Amino acid sequence: MSEDWRTEGSEYLYRRIRRSVVEDGQVLGFSDGSVVGYLPKEESDYESASTGEPAPLWHGKHRKICALL
Q1: pLDDT band at 68 (very low <50, low <70, confident <90, very high)
Q2: Of 10, 25, 23, 24, whose CA–CA distance to 65 is shortest?
Q3: DSSP β-bridge partners for residue 66
C-alpha cells in the first residue's frame, strides 16, 4: 500500500467528520475533525466489511473530544 495520502481529487477532502468515542460498548462522546487525505480503492489495501470489495481509505485528523455523555 502507498503511504502517500492524496490531498486532491476527492469531494470529501476537508469535510467535517465526527467519530464516536466508545468504551465497553458504550458511546461516551464524539471526536470532531476533518478528512485530510485518502487513498483510492485501487491503491488502498482496505476491503469493505459489508461487500468484501476494495474500497477507498480515508485519513482523518481529529481536533478534540466533545459532547461527553
Answers
A1: low
A2: 23
A3: 30
SS (H, E, C) 11-37: CCCCCEEEEEEEECCEEEEEEEEEEEE
d(CA 48, CA 62): 23
Reported as a single tens digit per residue, the pLDDT across 3-48 is 689 999 999 999 999 999 898 999 988 889 999 999 999 999 999 9
SS3 46: coil
The 10 Å CB-count burial string (b at 16+, else e) for 53-65 is: eebbbbebeeeee
Q: Tell which residue, 41, 29, 42, has the closest CA to residue 68.
A: 29
Please give the grid coordinates belonging to residue 64.
Answer: 478534540
